[in-house]
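Worked example 3 (structure in, sequence out).
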């Protein structure tokens, strides 16, 4: 059992804290947001993530998980302190590290015993060392140089929508430290999570930080590559779903992250791709691949809009479009950088009215599309979204959209036109019900 403090109770901090607590550790989760902390004490979560609420409830009840706004209280007995604050993108695409640095400052100001400070948020190469400098400086200012500490980089690899599962059963754990004792301690902490010979990898801090960017940009590159091939298929022929299975059979390529679609979104891929480009730029290196990954994705987010424009023209006044899925991917209510932002806004700007359904993201969408409120109607049932629609647009591949009642849809829609941004349907189904069908790279 270890005593752990999480500084930052957002997505990563909350999942990490709850999972550590569930393994028997004593965890304090700290956040400056008083409302958030008050809610969390009552197991009211700021995000939707499968399995997380149950985990928080159980560990709160059993007293292993506690919430506070007082960082001093959080680190009082702790051996490990994780920095899990946000690193939102700045206007130039670089990661805003101000929350990381103020967390480091706050830790340095109140620690009075040996502490291992772990950067878990995704941070550019060199940030963990800057955290060390800031803490050292704070200790010096208050004449507490005798208080020892260490820093570690321990990037997280969890996916939204599967975060608890990913944390509990990681493919690998990356630990960046040059100190053997710290490495041993971190290994002990993660041992219960790592099964099936999945490794705990010890490396230097900079490699650990870079591993996270390299992994995310590599995954984003696979998606952009498939999206580019899909667009080419739409011009020269070929079906991207056949091509995916064809290349995935090569075990060097593998099966995952090869789905063409409406473009990748979320808080991670877009931000990390931009940060890598930026890091290269600042250091005089053009990151040609990362730049292309980003540009292809921007183009892809407009691909469905281009199709709609080709089919219905520039002016969509008086037309009604049903939308299925607003979140950037299924199993989340997160809309950050979601392709739906580009698609919905473009269609409204062309004069359309949108009737949208999403199983989780409606509340989020109401805030995000506040300025467009007069042009969007939200409905609580997927079939309501197609009533009187001139077309249906599927943007997020929630499971419940996979096998809709096509004959019911047929009776509700004004025109039987379906734009499928996630290649969800078989051509036979579509033909049987007489839909006009547009999809991504399947040359239909
Ligand atoms: C991503 C990584 O997958 C995690 O490993 C990483 O820890 C996380 O970022 C992070 O940096 O914190 P996440 O953003 O939650 O996780 O979501 P993904 O499941 O990776 O999906 C990202 C986007 O790619 C979604 O918009 C999804 O629809 C899209 N996607 C994914 C595709 O278009 N095609 C695919 O084949 C796979």
């Amino acid at each position: 059992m270890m005593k752990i403090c999480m500084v930052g109770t957002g997505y990563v901090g909350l999942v990490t804290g709850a999972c550590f607590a569930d393994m028997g550790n004593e965890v304090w989760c700290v956040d400056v947001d008083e409302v958030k902390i008050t809610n969390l004490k009552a197991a009211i979560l700021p995000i939707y993530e499968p399995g997380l609420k149950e985990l928080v409830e159980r560990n709160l009840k059993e007293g292993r998980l506690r919430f506070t706004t007082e960082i001093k209280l959080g680190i009082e007995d702790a051996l490990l302190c994780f920095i899990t604050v946000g690193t939102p993108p700045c206007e130039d695409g670089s990661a805003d590290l101000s929350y990381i640095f103020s967390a480091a400052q706050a830790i340095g100001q109140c620690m009075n015993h040996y502490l291992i400070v772990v950067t878990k948020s995704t941070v550019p190469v060199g940030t963990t060392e800057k955290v060390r400098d800031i803490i050292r400086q704070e200790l010096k200012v208050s004449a507490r140089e005798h208080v020892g500490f260490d820093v570690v980089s321990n990037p997280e690899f969890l996916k939204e929508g599967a975060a608890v599962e990913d944390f509990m059963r990681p493919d690998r754990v990356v630990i960046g430290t040059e100190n053997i004792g710290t490495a041993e301690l971190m290994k002990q902490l993660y041992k219960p999570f790592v099964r099936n010979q999945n490794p705990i990898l010890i490396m230097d801090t900079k490699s650990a930080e870079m591993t996270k960017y390299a992994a995310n940009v590599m995954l984003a590159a696979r998606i952009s590559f498939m999206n580019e091939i899909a667009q080419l298929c739409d011009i020269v022929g070929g079906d991207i779903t056949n091509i995916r299975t064809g290349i995935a059979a090569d075990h060097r390529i593998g099966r995952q992250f090869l789905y063409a679609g409406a473009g990748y979104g979320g808080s991670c891929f877009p931000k990390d791709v931009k940060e890598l480009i930026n890091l290269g730029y600042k250091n005089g290196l053009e990151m040609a691949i990362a730049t292309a990954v980003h540009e292809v994705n921007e183009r892809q987010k407009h691909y469905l809009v281009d199709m709609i424009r080709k089919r219905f023209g520039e002016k969509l006044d008086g037309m009604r479009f049903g939308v299925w899925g607003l979140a950037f991917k299924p199993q989340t209510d997160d809309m950050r950088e979601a392709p739906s932002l580009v698609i919905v806004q473009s269609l409204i700007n062309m004069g359309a009215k949108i009737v949208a359904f999403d199983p989780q993201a409606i509340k989020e969408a109401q805030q995000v599309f506040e300025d467009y409120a007069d042009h969007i109607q939200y409905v609580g049932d997927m079939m309501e979204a197609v009533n009187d629609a001139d077309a249906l647009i599927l943007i997020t591949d929630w499971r419940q959209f996979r096998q809709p009642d096509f004959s019911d849809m047929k009776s509700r829609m004004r025109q039987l036109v379906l734009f499928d941004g996630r290649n969800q349907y078989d051509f036979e189904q579509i033909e049987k019900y007489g839909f006009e069908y547009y999809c991504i790279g399947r040359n239909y």
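Notes: Residues 122, 156-160, 216, 219, 223, 257-259, 261, 264-266, 268-269, 328-329 surround uridine-5'-diphosphate-glucuronic acid (CB under 6 Å). Residues 3-203 form a domain with the Rossmann fold fold (CATH 3.40.50.720).
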